[in-house]
Structure formats: C-alpha cells, structure tokens
Amino acid sequence: MDKQGEAAESHAPAPMPRPRTADQAMHPLIAGRFEWLSRFPIARWAPIPLRLIVGYGFMEHGFAKLARGPDAFPAILQALGVPAPHLMGWLTILVEIVGGLFVFLGALIPLASIPMAAVLLVAMFTVHLPYGFSSIKLQAVTAAGAQFGPPGFETNLLYLACLAALVLGGSGPLAIDGLLAKRREITRSSSDAGPSAGRRAAGGPDGAANGRGLT
After folding, report:
1. Closest Cα to residue 170, out of 125, 103, 97, 119?
2. Domains identified in the chain, total number
3. Handedness of CA 180, 186, 192, 194 (dihedral sign)
4. Can you give the C-alpha Rg of the chain in angstroms?
5. By residue range, what is the domain housing residue 105?
6. pLDDT truncated to tens, each residue of the chain (215 aa)?
7. Which of 9, 11, 33, 41 is 20 to 30 A removed from 185 (C-alpha atoms)?
8. In a domain, 200, yes or no
9. Is the separation of the CB atoms in 103 and 55 below 8 Å?
10. Nearest CA-CA partner of 100 in 64, 61, 156, 56
11. Which of 105, 101, 104 is nearest to 180 (CA)?
C-alpha cells in the first residue's frame, strides 16, 4: 500500500504556480530603482530641514513682533482677553526667539519644545480655531494683490508635528545635542577607565598575581 501511495503521489500533477500580482511584479523594479538610496545613510539627515524651518519660523515670528513695537503684541493679547498681556507678550516673544534658536542649532530640543508647543496650542485655541483648518484662504485677486481670509490652525499643527518628530526621532547630525552626547560619552569612559587603572597600579588581582610570580 505504501508503494502504491508513493507511486500515486509521484504521478500527481505539480501544483500550478500562483500568478504574480501587479504589486509583486513591480516590487523588484521599484527596489532596483531605489536601491542606491540604501547605500547612503540619508535618513539620519532628515531632522535637519525640520530644524531649519521650525527654528527660522519661530525666530521670524518673534522678531516680527518686536519690529511692530513693544506694545503692539501685548495690545493684541489684551484684546483677546489674555491675562497679564504685557508679561505673556514678552514671554511669547522670548520663547519664539530663544526656542527657535535652540531648535535651529539642535540644542536641548526636548526641553525647548515644551514652551514652544504651549505657545502654538494657545494661539491655536484662542485665535485660529474659529477659522477652520486651512491657513491659506485665497478670497480674491485685485489690483492691490491677492486677498486672503483669516488663517486657520493648519500651520500650528504642522509646527507641532515637526516638534514631535524632532523630540521622538532626535535632532540629527550637526546638532549641539550630538556634541553634548559625545562629550558625556568621553567623560563617562574616562571616569570608568580611571578606577580600573588605579586598581592595576595599586596591585589589583592581576598585579597581585604578577607580584607573587616574581617572588
């Protein structure tokens, strides 16, 4: 019976191969087309454009508020009903300029992003939320130029997403955070090497064994 079963299995038709779908057929082509991307570690440079646009954008908004005069932005906050408008106005300008500079340089981004996110959330809920999502609302084009409506909270969300990406993914290369991390590693390695070198000099386990061998 076993021989008959083996003979039947040997004469059974081979299973037909599955037809390849269009996605499976295109995958080798796409992989070959973009194979050169895997040869270069370009993903580690992704945080740099985020740092540049977020840092420059915040600093630009801060300097623009200063250019209008020291009382212009606090007056806007007072009209919105924000308590202590002068204090909050100067704190906002300080966060935008200093926080933007920190992000631009890649320095202490997890800490700098906290007040920056707070400024974005306050602006979104107090100013932009009633005007919907879109930040660019082209209403008309006249002889004086393009006329836009009040901006929504789209830009606020974009800045928040960029800050979240930098906090979760790191500041990337050419950042002060990377230099600080390397300095901490050097300090830690030197501090770890110091006690071990001292034990060897004082006659640690290896030194004691060598000493006994010499005597």
Report:
1. 103
2. 1
3. negative
4. 32
5. 46-139+151-172
6. 555 555 555 555 555 555 555 445 545 555 555 565 556 678 888 899 999 999 999 999 999 999 998 889 999 888 888 888 899 999 999 999 999 999 999 999 999 999 999 999 999 998 898 889 988 888 888 888 888 888 889 999 999 999 999 999 988 888 998 888 888 888 888 777 766 555 565 555 554 444 444 44
7. 41
8. no
9. yes
10. 56
11. 105
CA 190-195-201 angle, to 5 degrees, is 115
Supply the pLDDT for residue 186. Answer: 84
HEC profile of 55-113: HHHHHHHHHHHHHCCCCHHHHHHHHCCCCCHHHHHHHHHHHHHHHHHHHHHCCCHHHHH
CA distances from 23 to 26, 30, 94, 171 (A): 5, 10, 52, 35
pLDDT at 36: 58
Angle at 144 between CA 138 and CA 146, to 5 degrees: 15
List the beta bridge partners of residue 147: 140
Number of other residues whose CB lies within 10 A of the CB of residue 115: 16
Q: Is 165 helix (H, G, I), strand (E, B) or coil?
A: helix
Closest listed residue to residue 176, CA positions, set 91, 95, 112: 112
Q: Let me know if residue 184 belongs to a domain.
A: no
pTM: 0.67
Residue 209 lies in a domain: no
